[in-house]
Amino acid sequence: MAKKSVASLQTGSKRLTKAIKMVKSPDTGAYTFVESIMTPEAVNDWLSKK
Questions:
Q1: What is the mean pLDDT of residues 38-48?
Q2: Phi-psi region of 17 (alpha: psi -120 to 50; beta: other; left: phi over 0)
Q3: When you count CB atoms within 10 A of the terminal residue's CB, does the N or C end of the chain come out lower?
Q4: Euclidean distance between CA atoms 33 and 28, whole angstroms
Q5: pTM
Q6: Phi–psi pair at 12, nearest 5 degrees
Q7: Cβ neighbours for 18, distance < 8 A, ≥ 6 positions apart
Q8: What is the reported pLDDT for 10?
Q9: CA–CA separation, 5 vs 15, rounded Å?
Q10: How far, in Å, CA of 21 to CA of 41, rounded?
């Protein structure tokens, strides 16, 4: 599973990060990309979840 933190985004006084995770489908075996925008502290927890 590949993972990468792509960009740091700033909105007002909050710093946000866009994270993209590649997930393999158990049915077809195809890979899909899941994107989420969150605080930098939450990125590692989000990436470690399946």
A1: 89
A2: beta
A3: C
A4: 15
A5: 0.60
A6: 60, -120
A7: 5, 6, 7, 9, 35, 36, 37
A8: 61
A9: 14
A10: 16
